[in-house]
Amino acid sequence: xxxxxxxxxxxxxxxxxxxxxxxxxxxxxxxxxxxxxxxxxxxxxxxxxxxxxxxxxxxxxxxxxxxxxxxxxxxxxxxxxxxxxxxxxxxxxxxxxxxxxxxxxxxxxxxxxxxxxxxxxxxxxxxxxxxxxxxxxxxxxxxxxxxxxxxxxxx
Length: 155
Hints:
By secondary structure, the chain is mainly β. Helices cover 8% and strands 43% of the residues. It is built from one helix and seven strands. It has one helix spanning 91-102, and strands at 8-17, 27-37, 67-75, 78-87, 114-123, 130-136, 142-151. The chain has a four-stranded antiparallel beta sheet with strand order 2-1-7-6, with no helix packed on it. A hairpin with a 5-residue loop joins β6 and β7. It is elongated. The two termini are 13 Å apart.
């Protein structure tokens, strides 16, 4: 997207699951970025997927994407972010289903992908990350979204 006139900003977001172990690296979920024009500050739609396609991953189960999508609006020094975070299935999700299958059910247990929604408004400083805890994954580990606004390219 090219901004026809006005101020250009770059909005970046990253989502991750914090590891509960001290000094452990967070598990990335997805990231996205977009140019935001001063005269049209509502365009931010980006979907990040990783891993095998749905028909290959998760034993052929459909619809288990991971990543992030959303919208951002910038008004002066204030930014508003609306995002959905698609948390990848964990080993614990599959283990829980295996236990249910062993307990005599019909074997139809399918782990469900988890989506966390976030809406937040904050006053930003250019280039400085703002982080927000948005919920927890199926194991109870915090899901975090980090966002920043940068000056855009000058043409």
